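Homework help board

Subject: predicted structure for assignment chain

Our instructor gave us this sequence and asked us to write out the predicted structure in token form, then describe one feature. I got the tokens but I'm not sure how to describe them. Can anyone check?
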Amino acid sequence: MSLKSLSRIIALATFVLIAICIVLFIDDERRIQLIARDIEEVSANVSESMTRTRALLRFTVVLETALLAALIGFILLGLSRRVVRPLTLLRSNLRAAAGDNLHVIPITGPKEIAQVANDAEHLRRSLVSQTDRAQLSMQALDFEAPASVAIRASLDRQIQSVPGFAGYSRPIEGVIAGDWWWAGVRSDGKRIFAIADVSGHGVRAGVMAIESRSIVSTALVSSLPLDEIALALSRHAWDQGMFFTLFMGVIDANSLEYCSAGHEYACLADAGDQQLLPPTGPVISNLGGHWTVACVPFSATSVFLAATDGLIEPTSPAAVSHWLTQAICAEPPTPENWLNHLLAASRNATEGWPDDLTVILAIGI
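My token output:
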């Protein structure tokens, strides 16, 4: 091979090698550009993801902070409305009741605070009763104190506790009231009771009240017919011009047998219905008269209420019947609690009881 041919071959090989290098360089350059573009795309995606993540984290932090603040606010608002505010109201009513014992403490708020308010209201009523007794005792010093105290003690004395009965008596002058009530249990198991309103006030009315109650209670225990008891009382030699109304009753398992000698208010409530029990004869006096006996159903859900003029005169029988309906809804369902509710409603609705007040309440058992 000649030198010239070898040179051509070398030149051609050199050219081919250069061409190959150029092609490889171009290909590498293209690949590098593709890789750079991919890196840029990945970097952009990563940056976008990081931006979204930062925004989501900010939103999450803000939302959690808002929810926490809302929860704290809700708890504080709930405590204020359900605890702090009712307690503040209860304190205000307790202070008002301390200054004015006739201020009724409303039973409001959550169950636990309402129970405390209910206990406070019971305490207030007890204090009112104690205050009344103290005032009456002080008034008694202006009257015949020893005789007055002895007569009142006799009228207040109860021989035995009778289930299902509650009574209250409050004189208008001193400690002596012509009103009286009595309840007992007969030997046959029937419950017996009576309530009376003697005319006048003071020692004379008190003596007549003691005498009449002794006669009536003895006759009721002896199972004498009610109309015969009223007739015997009219034949008793009472002081001239003196008289009294009288309601006597006998309660058995399902009925109330009664005799009403001119008694103004006696009411029987059962299942939301109420009926007034009218008199079955005139008042008891030396003028005599004729009395009959009536009988009405009396079940385990029945409630009987009888009262003297002191409860009726300031308002009306309709108002007393309304208070009785409200009292029956009070808890606990005991005759003592219902009677306290009724007396509290009467005291709050009137400026004062103008006459001797005696009330008796009986429920079915």
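Reply (TA_rk): Your tokens look well-formed. For the description, you could write something like this. The helical segments are 3-99, 111-140, 145-156, 202-221, 226-234, 309-312, 317-328, 335-349. That's the kind of observation they're looking for.
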